[in-house]
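Researcher: Go.
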Amino acid sequence: MAVIRSIIRGIGAHLPARIMTNDDLAEFVETTNDWIVERTGIHQRHIAEDGETTADLGVAAARQAMIRAGIDPIDIDLIICATATPDRTFPATAVRIQSMLGITKGAAFDIQAVCSGFVYALVCADNFLKAGQSRRALVIGSETFSRILDWEDRSTCVLFGDGAGAVVLEAQPQLGDRNDRGIIASRLRSDGRFEDLLYVDGGPSSTKTVGHLRMNGREVFRHAIQKISGIIEETLLASGYAADEIDLFIPHQANKRILDGIAKKLDVPPERIIITLDKHGNTSAASIPLALNHAFEQHKLTEGKLVLLEAMGGGFTWGALLVRW
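Model: Structure:
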């Protein structure tokens, strides 16, 4: 029986020009390159310049995705931007991106699920497309986390960076069998009991400030491996595929030790995992599309490949999604 699937037509990414290495960080916070690399796998991160906004990064990534998809702005009727660092409290950064791209139809809104944001946004767009409410969607993950870091806290400021990635999704009919392209299965979860393990200590209604990122790294690490492994298994069960059938695992780029732990628990060969955090650190909602773009540019995302995306972020929120390229 024919079904509608959300096909990824194009992908794009953008990183700010400014690079901050671990040695650069060591000049103003008590740390070393070896300490950071050993504990996180990160070598450098990109930092947005003054005046360079989350919308600016998102627009650059979106334009590249549309060019690669062969899609004009007039063809887009839905924009979802995953971000925890919006340009303004309101309007949504997605609306600003819509205007900057010259798009005047459809809907645009933000999703805030922190590091899980891009997976959440993809699932949301997928449901819009399958329901027939939209035809083509821009799904963007864009962050300027450098704006909310405490640059005197070495446990957090060494981890994060800025960047953006985007995909163009298009609703297309498929046969409804195991050879279908597009998004095949997804699962989302959250548990607010763990809010105080990873959060920002500010907000309009609580402190009237932006605040800084705070994290209990040890506890986040412990929960991450358990929750991500579980959601991957749920998604695979829903899809009818086994872990050894997946061609590429593209995880949220948080910490090399977390990625190694998940790979070991699921018995995933290292060559199937895309790792880019060494080049840009944890870019929250932007990290998965940045890693997707890297895989695309390395010619690893050929048609027919089964690709599994997964992430966990503050809240806690977490999720996974299986797509056939």
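Model: Residues 182-324 form a domain with the Peroxisomal Thiolase; Chain A, domain 1 fold (CATH 3.40.47.10).
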